[in-house]
Write a structure and sequence with these properties.
Number of strands: 0
CATH architecture: Up-down Bundle
CATH topology: Acyl-CoA Binding Protein
């Protein structure tokens, strides 16, 4: 578990250093996997109708509801590795 958490934290640092900015769908997937891995299932009220970015993030995270944190961490790590090439 500690090893996975360390790799997860490293991946979160690595994603900030990507040479190319990922497309919006990939960014949402990264956000959702990170939040699911670090915080678990989505909590709190859905952002307001005119908060388009917040709503998109909330909905992406909601789609992962029920996924184990360890699984989300591993998927996040794998996606970051893929983006790094």
């Amino acid at each position: 578990m500690a090893d996975l958490k360390a790799k997860f934290e490293q991946a979160s640092d690595d994603v900030k250093k990507l040479s190319d900015r990922p497309d919006n769908d990939t960014l949402l997937k990264l956000y959702a996997l990170y939040k699911q891995g670090s915080d678990g299932d989505v909590a709190g009220p859905k952002p307001g109708f005119f908060d388009f970015v917040g709503t998109a993030k909330y909905e992406a995270w909601t789609k992962l509801k029920g996924m184990k944190s360890d699984d989300a961490m591993q998927k996040y790590i794998d996606l970051v590795k893929k983006l790094r090439g």
